[in-house]
């Protein structure tokens, strides 16, 4: 059973223009043979489908979206399933989530990790492939896309819930694949928390764990004979401005579930000088990958790299930590002689830093240094 997993797909700018013209081949033509060679292919759909008139939600970060042509393009390339647990599914509210689910169903794509409420979003997807059952569990870190009992969105990362989901899947399926959307953007290593969590999922019964979200590829490790991939990078994500090279680099992975679990990496360059995904030689990122993997398996080194990364961008966290900070200023604020610093944007920033696991890791680090 060969399962291909790809990273973040968000057709914008040059790619969106080609898709609207019906030109899927220019963008995804090189990828199509690899996708179709797998028994089952999965990609992360990083933006909701909008049809016109939907309103963006209030959040930190951009509100992404695409037309139904994005779904058509994914299906044309040979993908069978999209993961919807990510931090952008709910960017255009309930309507955006509903449009995405309906569009995927219309074009024959299975979905996992997203739904019209938490009950739907948290469902495990079971697929029978060559007489064997594959269970797919998809979740994401907490940002502004999370489903609730009454609102549409994505399946949130929850260790207790996912332990039970993995245990149930272990009983019902031959193989269990966990796909997570999380981590620090533009940082090529997992945090200590991520490594502990993903290893725990293997201990709970998962056969493989795959992560994406960081907009750059990371390394992998074999833990108790099972692979953990800490970041696939962008799959197809065009930007209007020039980005660092790591934005354009990524890989798909084909995981072969058999008596043993083997895998093949498919490195590529995406939306760099031209708006397409260009397949590279198999050893394209071999040196970079070896360096990342060496850090990942040595926890002291991984911790050192994490702390060095956390020291960067401290000003953003100080914005939240330094409002009124003594009794005289607080007294003036209570008497309305000073304005409240809890603006709408500050509230959204606080929610993002506190609810999102990766942002909270950095916030705690800076609090301990203050």
Describe the model.
It is built from 15 helices and 16 strands. By secondary structure, it is an alpha/beta fold. The strands form 3 sheets. Strands 1, 2, 3, 4, 13, 14, 15 and 16 form an 8-stranded mixed beta sheet that branches. A 6-stranded mixed beta sheet has the order 6-7-9-10-12-11. A two-stranded antiparallel ribbon has the order 5-8. Strand 9, helix 8 and strand 10 form a beta-alpha-beta unit. Helix 12 packs across helix 15 and helix 14 crosses helix 15. It is globular. The N and C termini lie far apart (51 Å).
Low-confidence stretches: none
Structure summary, number of beta strands: 16
Strand content: 15-25%
The helical percent reads 25-40%
Write the layout of secondary structure elements.
Elements: E1 2-10, H1 13-20, H2 25-28, H3 32-37, E2 40-45, H4 69-76, E3 81-83, H5 93-106, E4 110-112, E5 114-115, H6 118-121, E6 125-129, E7 132-140, E8 153-154, H7 159-172, E9 175-181, H8 192-204, E10 208-212, E11 220-223, E12 226-229, E13 234-237, H9 245-248, E14 249-257, E15 261-270, E16 277-279, H10 286-296, H11 299-310, H12 314-321, H13 327-334, H14 344-355, H15 357-369
Parallel strand pairs: 1-2, 1-13, 2-3, 3-4, 7-9, 9-10, 10-12
Antiparallel strand pairs: 1-14, 5-8, 6-7, 11-12, 14-15, 15-16
Helix pairs in contact: 12-15, 14-15
């Amino acid at each position: 059973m060969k399962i291909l997993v790809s990273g973040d797909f968000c057709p914008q700018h040059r790619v969106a223009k080609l898709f609207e013209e019906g030109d899927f081949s220019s963008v995804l033509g090189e990828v199509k043979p690899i996708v179709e060679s797998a028994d089952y292919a999965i990609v992360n759909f990083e933006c909701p489908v909008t049809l016109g008139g939907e309103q963006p939600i209030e959040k930190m970060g951009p509100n992404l979206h695409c037309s139904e042509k994005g779904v058509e393009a994914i299906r044309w390339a040979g993908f069978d399933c999209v993961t919807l647990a990510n931090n952008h599914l709910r960017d255009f509210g309930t309507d955006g989530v509903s449009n995405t689910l309906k569009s995927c169903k219309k074009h024959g794509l299975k979905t996992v990790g997203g739904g019209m409420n938490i009950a739907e979003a948290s469902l495990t997807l079971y697929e029978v492939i060559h007489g064997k059952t594959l269970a797919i569990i998809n979740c994401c870190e907490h940002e502004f896309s999370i489903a609730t009992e009454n609102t549409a969105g994505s399946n949130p990362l929850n260790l207790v819930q996912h332990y039970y989901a993995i245990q149930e899947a272990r009983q019902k399926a031959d193989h269990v694949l966990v796909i997570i959307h999380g981590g620090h953007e533009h940082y090529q290593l997992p945090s200590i928390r991520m490594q502990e969590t993903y290893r725990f999922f293997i201990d709970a019964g998962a056969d493989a764990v795959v992560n994406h979200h960081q907009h750059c590829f990371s390394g992998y490790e074999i833990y108790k004979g099972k692979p953990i991939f800490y970041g696939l990078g962008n799959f197809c994500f065009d930007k209007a401005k020039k980005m660092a090279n790591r934005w354009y680099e990524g890989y798909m992975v084909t995981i072969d579930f058999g008596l043993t679990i083997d895998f093949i990496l498919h490195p590529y360059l995406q939306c760099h000088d031209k708006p397409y995904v260009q397949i590279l030689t198999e050893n394209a990122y071999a040196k970079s990958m070896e360096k990342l993997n060496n850090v990942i398996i040595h926890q002291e080194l991984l911790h050192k790299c994490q702390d060095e990364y956390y020291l960067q961008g401290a000003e953003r966290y100080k914005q939240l930590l330094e409002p009124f900070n003594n009794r005289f200023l607080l007294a003036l604020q209570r008497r309305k002689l000073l304005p409240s610093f809890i603006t709408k944007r500050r509230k959204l920033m606080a929610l993002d830093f506190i609810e999102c696991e990766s942002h909270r890791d950095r916030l705690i680090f800076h609090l301990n240094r203050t």
